[in-house]
Design a protein that fits this description.
By secondary structure, this protein is mainly beta. The chain has one domain (33-55, 134-383): YVTN repeat-like/Quinoprotein amine dehydrogenase (Methylamine Dehydrogenase, Chain H, 7 Propeller), CATH 2.130.10.10. The protein contains 1 helix and 32 strands. The strands form 8 sheets. Strands 1-32-31-30 form a 4-stranded antiparallel β-sheet, with no helix packed on it. The protein has a 4-stranded antiparallel β-sheet with strand order 2-3-4-5, with no helix packed on it. Strands 6-7-8-9 form a 4-stranded antiparallel β-sheet, with no helix packed on it. A hairpin with a 4-residue loop joins β15 and β16 (205-210).
């Protein structure tokens, strides 16, 4: 039975994406929307570009680079980990882990952490790439581990949360949760603060644990499974969580987008939404890439949509990211689109990787980092 469930995990996202592209009264799958012309208002300029091994590989991986100080770290599906100067792209060190990476990259407190398909968590020294420790968690790790300097928190495919000692990798605690019967392949990355470890689960719940011992502090249900079939009832939180101030932002597939109070889990606001990508926040608004390919800007005070851009329908969008006064989002053909935060109109577009861009864009200051599916990592800035 376990093997069947694993197969369903791997296959469901493809089924879900097909369902998004089909109307309720037609069996024919609709193609991705064709890109429309627009008047370019700003231009994206390439600062540097570098290849990172095989990139995301042939399975549905979501390997996202990470930045600490003046360095950017990236990993490919085969286990090649690279540290670079984030301004120039110069390679500082490279490490081959000799095993498939599926949860990457976490970096903080001078340590790079990664998860593997074999159920291992590996910690590397951020300055040298040398391995500090390796821990077995016995299930696929599909998202970057999170580290608060004392505890490394890992979320596994089967909705377990594990706290590891940041210095040794020894297990401190385990939180066990029963996953949904069917889930999208992937998990959102957990978040950690000095007091809490927070994660979104395949059941549409968000749980906050005491980071020192794994004891639950609060639990909040964001989405309620509905429908007759198991596919209809999928409400995964796969796009990750976003923490801004004291508010935790979350979206679910076939469920809702919501803002939660960090300390209590109380729902501050919510609205219907379906997203497997996640959210971004800026200027008092929340932005999301819906499963349909629509990008929305929502006023978090009134929960009303300020604007909605449906011209990227069925283009399998990445999570959005706030970049200056724009929203950056990638698509299945490797285009990066810039939309205005004010009204959602297109202001710029450039193609980075013909194999597509599914990883969330990464923004640090005036630099936009895009990691394409084939392994092309590109740093962009707005041309002045």
């Amino acid at each position: 039975m376990r093997d069947v469930i694993r197969w369903k995990h791997a296959a469901l996202l493809a089924l879900a994406l097909m369902a998004v592209g089909c109307s309720s009264n037609s069996k024919k799958e609709l193609p991705p929307a064709e890109l429309t012309d627009f008047k370019e208002e700003v231009s994206l300029q390439k600062v540097w570009s570098r290849g990172i091994g095989d990139g995301q590989g042939k399975t549905y991986n979501m390997l996202v680079p990470a930045v600490e100080n003046d360095r950017i770290y990236a990993a490919d599906v085969t286990g090649e980990v690279v540290a670079m100067n984030r301004m120039t792209g110069d390679v500082l060190w490279k490490k081959d882990l000799d095993q498939p990476v599926s949860g990457a990259v976490g970096v903080s407190y001078g340590m790079v952490t990664l998860g593997t398909l074999r159920g291992d968590v590996i910690a590397l020294d951020a300055d040298t790439g040398e391995q500090r420790w390796k821990a077995r968690v016995n299930s696929e790790v599909l998202a970057p581990p999170a580290n608060n300097g004392n505890v490394v928190v890992v979320q596994t495919q089967d909705d377990r949360l594990i706290g590891l000692d940041a210095n040794t990798g020894d297990q401190r605690w385990l939180y066990d949760s029963t996953p949904a019967v069917l889930t999208l392949r992937g998990t959102g990355a957990p978040l950690v603060t000095n007091q809490l470890a927070i994660a979104g689960l395949s059941t549409g719940k968000v749980v906050a644990l005491d980071v020192s011992n794994g004891v639950p502090v609060w639990e909040a249900r964001v989405a309620v499974p509905q429908g007759r079939s198991e596919l209809d009832r999928v409400v995964d939180i796969d796009g990750g969580l976003l923490l801004s101030g004291g508010t935790l932002y979350v979206t679910t597939y076939q469920g809702r987008m919501a803002g939660l109070d960090l300390e209590s889990g109380r729902v501050l606001w919510q609205r219907d939404a379906s997203s497997y990508a996640g959210v971004a926040q800026g200027f008092g608004n929340v932005y999301t890439s819906l499963a349909s390919g629509t990008v929305e800007g929502v006023d978090e005070r009134s929960t009303t949509a300020l604007w909605s851009n449906d011209q990227l329908a069925r283009r399998q969008l990445s999570a959005p990211e706030v970049f200056s006064s724009y929203i950056a989002v990638g698509d299945l053909e490797g285009y990066v689109h810039l939309l205005s935060q004010v009204d959602g109109r297109f202001v710029s577009r450039t193609r980075v990787d013909s194999d597509g861009v599914r990883a969330r864009p990464l923004v640090v200051g005036d630099m936009l980092y895009i990691f394409g599916n084939s392994g092309k990592l590109e740093a962009l800035t707005v041309k002045q």
